[in-house]
Each structure stands twice: as structure tokens, then as C-alpha cells.
Amino acid sequence: MTARMFASAIVLSISCAATAALAQAPIKVGAFLSITGPAAFLGDPEQKTLEMYVERINASGGVAGRKLELVVYDDAGDAEKARTFARRLLEQDKVDVLVGGSTTGTTMAAVPLAEQAQTPFISLAGAVGIVEPVKKWVFKTPHTDRMACEKVFADMRARKLVKVAIISGTGGFDKSMRGECLKVAGNFGVEVVADESYGAADTDMSAQLTKIRGNAAVQAVLNAGFGQGPAIVTRNYRQLGLAMPLYQSHGVASAEYVKLAGSAAEGVRLPAAALLVADILPDTDKQKPVVVAYKHDYEARYKSEVSAFGGHAYDGLMLAVDAMKRAGGADKAKVRDALEATRGYVGTGGVVNMTATDHMGLDETAFRMLEVKNGAWVLVR
Predict the structure, then answer these.
(1) What range defines the domain where residue 352 resides?
(2) How many CA atoms lie within 13 A of 167 on its CB side?
(3) CA 37/CA 227 separation, integer angstroms
(4) What's 200's domain CATH number?
(5) pLDDT tens digits along 230-260
(6) SS3 sequence, 1-18?
(7) Is the Cα dihedral 108, 113, 116, 121 positive or negative?
(8) Residue 371, domain member (yes or no)
(9) CA-derived radius of gyration, the chain
(10) Treating both helix axes as pointing N-terminal to C-terminal, what angle do 40-59 and 288-302 enclose, rounded to 10 degrees?
(11) Secondary structure string (H, E, C) spanning 234-283
């Protein structure tokens, strides 16, 4: 063997070894979630969902011959912490994909970093501004706040409730949803005749609701918000004897809201994913097998009820995995392109059909209008 042939053999050997090592290296899934703090009702089920399904995927052989490695940080709902952790995930942990961002504020803090790092980022937060305008590397799983406004106003119109009061918090999601509702109300013949707000730390919204009660024109009330604020609004609403219909956002789509609000939640309506009513969906509903299976898996393992928020994490992870399979691995550009080409994915949030101009891929049919009856969610027929 000549020296040149020997050198070529060494190079080929090193190349093969490197390729083999890469094939065995785990695919890193990074997540920053609000596991503690005021948005823990979002981040806690999201973390549990990601952990459970990463284990299951690895037990079944992983993705493209490689195991998944989940790297999670708790941002406690703080945008600055989220930015710090997103940077760490991208620069130090060198993750292949981001699946996280429990809230709009924490998500938006990380968006520029994901774009700069050219790393696919699937957000679990609700505001339409996450994907509009479209950002090349950013996607999301939940329905948007605009869609929620439209679903609520369509239901109000059907009930001939056209004079509406809005009450909302001051957080990122609350502000975004309020703004979207104001934009689209006229499209449904709805007029916003009262507009009140409350702070994140407020523990009583009676003053704002008393103003709404004093407005004789109001026929229905919409609370644009998430967290404990909507439960307080609901309790104060009943204490003050307000009788007009009360609507909430999809930001409280969980059994936790009903528990916090207690009997005051009776009759409240909100738009939500099919997951909350998995067991009573008709057998012909194409989402039923997915949501029933996720509900069973989650509740069997964690002994607690599912929420739409854990479902967002399920969809985020499964969309990433599906894209990696179609991309043949974790190459970031190929995974991004595969995500954008997703068609017909049936998840807990709906049937996803993404395009270059739509990085969420859900339409209004993905939302179900639910109502609290006898302490449980039921479908509005």
C-alpha cells in the first residue's frame, strides 16, 4: 500500500467513525417551560408530557436510529429567565430543536434567538403574534387568540348577544387577545360596549365587574386571560349577581379552572381543543383515537386530569418527531422544511396543515365550544 493509499484509508476510516458516532449521538430536544410560578398550570403538564413521550419514543427505538435527549429548564414564567435558558439551550446544550415557551411572553423572548441560531422552534403559547408575521424558524401548536375571539363571537351571535363587555389581564396573552377581539368583533356584528382590565396580582375584580354591571347595554361578558385571574373574575361575577352569559378564553381550558372557580363556573363557555371532551366525542371524529389515547396515558401515569396545555406539548414533540422522520434525521434546515410541509397531522389540537405562510396549520374547525355543566366540560351542541 502506498503512502497516499494509506492516508486515504485513514481519512475514510475517520469519516466512517464520525458518521457512526453521529448516528449514535442523541437528538437533543430543548425546552424552557413555566414549571413553577403563576403559569405552572401550563408548564407542569407540558414537562410531564414531554418526559413521558420521550421515554416512550426511546423505548421504541428512537428517531432515525437515534435516541432523544430532553433538556428542560424552568423559567417560572419570567421572560428574562426564558431568554437566558433559550440561549443556554442553543449555545451550550446545542439542541437540535426547541419545543417550549409556555406563555406568550416567554416565547417571544426566545424567538430572536431561535431565528439567529437557525434552529426549529415549536412554541406552546397562544398569541397570534408568535407566527404572524411568519418567522422562518418558528412554529406553534395552540390555537391563536384571534381564533378564540372568532369562535366566541360566533357563538354569541348565534345566541343574539351582540353588546359585549371585555375584561382582561395585563399579561402578554391577555393584551394580545383583547386586541384581537377588538379587531374582529365587528366582523360578527358584535359591539364592545365596555372594556375593563385587572393586574396580574389583583385578588378581587369586583370594582371592574361592578362597572360592567352598571352598563345596561351589556348582554354578555368575555374574559380574555389565563391563570388564576379568570377564576377570580368568575367567582366575583357570581357574587355580584351578574346574570348575563360569561365566556372565558382557551387560556383556562383545564379542569383546574373549574376547581378554582367552583360552582361559580357553572354555565361558563369557552373555546377549547377536543382533548377536554375526549371521551364524549363521536366515534366518527378523526381526533378521537389520538385524544383518548393521550388522555389515558397521561392520567394513568400521573393520576391527574389532562389539560389542553399538556396536549400542546404532545403535539409539539410529535410534530418535531414526524418532521425528523421525514427529514431522515436532525439536520436543522431539513427539519424546518419538513415542519413547514406538514399535512394532515392529527393531534390533540386539531388536524394540522402547515404552509410557508401558516406556521400553525389549524383552522376554526379545530376549536370546540364547551360549557361547564355539573362541574364538568360538555360540548355545546
Answers:
(1) 27-143+289-366
(2) 28
(3) 10
(4) 3.40.50.2300
(5) 999 999 999 999 999 999 999 898 888 999 9
(6) CCHHHHHHHHHHHHHHHH
(7) negative
(8) no
(9) 23
(10) 100
(11) HHHHHHCCCCCCEEECHHHCEHHHHHHHHHHHCCCEEEECHHHHHHHCCC
Burial environment of residue 326 by CB neighbours within 10 A (0 to 12, 13 to 18, 19 or more): middle
Q: Which of 54, 264, 247 is nearest to 46 (CA)?
A: 54
- Could you read off the pLDDT of 163-211 as tens digits, one per residue? 999 999 998 889 999 999 999 999 999 999 999 999 988 999 999 999 9
DSSP H or E segment with residue 68: strand 68-74
Cα separation, 246 vs 48, whole angstroms: 32
Q: List the one residue out of 87, 129, 94, 139 whose CA is nearest residue 316.
A: 139
**What is the tally of structural domains in the chain?**
2
- Residue 376 in domain: no
Is the pTM higher than 0.85? yes
Same-domain check for residues 126 and 151: no
- Within this chain, do residues 84 and 120 fall inside the same structural domain, yes or no? yes
For cell 391527574, the residue is 304
Same domain, yes or no: 105 and 50 = yes
Q: Give yes or no: residues 338 and 359 share one domain.
A: yes
Question: Could you tell me if 250 and 330 lie in one domain?
Answer: no
Alpha helices in the chain (DSSP H): 3-24, 40-59, 79-91, 104-117, 145-158, 172-184, 206-213, 229-239, 255-261, 288-302, 308-327, 332-340
> Is residue 138 domain-shared with residue 175, that is, in the same domain?
no
Taking the C-alpha atoms of residue 266 and residue 246, their distance in angstroms, rounded to an integer, is 10
379 pLDDT exceeds 60?
Answer: yes
Count Cβ atoms below 10 Å from residue 173 Cβ, excluding itself: 25
Per-residue pLDDT, averaged over 283-307, amounts to 96
- Domain end position, chosen among 225, 240, 272: 272
Residue that terminates a domain, selected from 237, 272, 307: 272
Query: Which cell is 2 given?
Result: 502506498
